[in-house]
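Hi V.,

You were right to ask for the full record rather than a summary. Here it is.
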Amino acid sequence: MEYFKQIIVDAGKEMIKRSLTVATWGNLSVRDPESGYIVVTPSGMDYQTSVPDDMVVFDRNGSMIEGKRRPSIEKDLHIMIYQQRPDVNAIIHTHPIYSTVFAVTRQGIPAITEEFAQVVGYSVKCAEHALPGTKELAEHAVRALGKERAVLLASHGTVCVGPDMETVFKISDILEKTAQILILSKNIGTPRIISKEDVKVMQDFLKTGYGQR
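Predicted structure:
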């Protein structure tokens, strides 16, 4: 599991570098597709000084199998998402500025830009409010996430999911950029939401027609 633990260590530093959270807030995880084991960040530890041995490992049923640290209080959120989404192998929970504006106003973020449509999806919903670290929060988040690639946690922050950590950071960056664009665009007019049909066309193009093949 050392390979996956190192992914989390590096991702934690990257999350701070990109200003997606402050201090020790937020949390990350990855899943080993072969064993199903889930590596989660420890609770309240500095991302800049954390090492692989600080990470905590759970099996697919949520039983802790390795680690000497207390796991993130949002471990149930991560484990429950993995149980419901076999396509997901990486998760980051962040506290960014612009998308959290929508989380605190309990609004979703629709597909208003081409890159959002291609990479994030049709929309990002805001889950019902629940206290941090509770199973209720995890349940609300899983329900609002559905088959999409991100969800807002009411009055809290964001959760982005994907097949690997690189993709999850891309989703997080685009979500935050789109949230900023949405806020700014409302100052000069009415943002236009891309239709579901066009979102589907753009997603298919990204998979089959974009880049070098």
